[in-house]
């Protein structure tokens, strides 16, 4: 349940950053920050 919430959040980030340059890299960086915040 908790992981699906994270997965949805990552999909949301990808959906909203794909327009920008290096969007995949940005999404990966953001996901790492989120994982650190959530202590995964």
Automatic annotation (TrEMBL):
Annotated protein name in UniProt: Uncharacterized protein
């Amino acid at each position: 349940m908790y992981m699906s919430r994270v997965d949805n959040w990552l999909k949301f980030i990808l959906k909203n950053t794909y327009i920008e340059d290096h969007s995949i890299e940005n999404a990966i960086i953001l996901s790492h920050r989120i994982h650190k915040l959530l202590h995964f």
